[in-house]
Design a protein that fits this description.
Radius of gyration: 13 Å
Number of helices: 4
Order of helices and strands: EHHHHEE
Strand order of the largest sheet: 1-2-3
Shape: globular
Distance between the termini: 15 Å
Structural class: mainly alpha
Number of strands: 3
Strand content: 5-15%
Number of domains: 1
């Protein structure tokens, strides 16, 4: 499975924060490389289908992208877990 990383996840990993990042998240990131995923029209359209549980626009884009691309989303954000997306932490 491919994973999409929430911003805090990337920052904690790059900063070597061993207390904030879960072991599961760290294992997923260490065993995989990074690849940039371009934002496409299908991701933007998918945002409109999401209920307004989470109001932060970038997180809504991450959720829509993860759903559209059938990717797991590595995040500790409790609001993200309220969406039909495979959230890993």
């Amino acid at each position: 499975m491919n994973y999409l990383l929430d911003t805090h996840t990337v920052l904690w990993f790059l900063n070597g924060d061993k207390t904030s990042l879960s072991n599961t998240a760290r294992d997923i990131i260490q065993k995989n490389g990074f690849e940039l995923l371009p934002i496409g029209a299908s991701h933007i359209v998918a945002i409109e289908q999401l209920p307004l549980i989470h109001r932060y626009p970038f997180d809504r884009l991450l959720i829509a992208t993860a759903i559209t691309e059938q990717m797991g989303l590595v995040s500790c954000d409790a609001n993200i877990k309220l969406y039909p997306v495979n959230t890993i932490w």
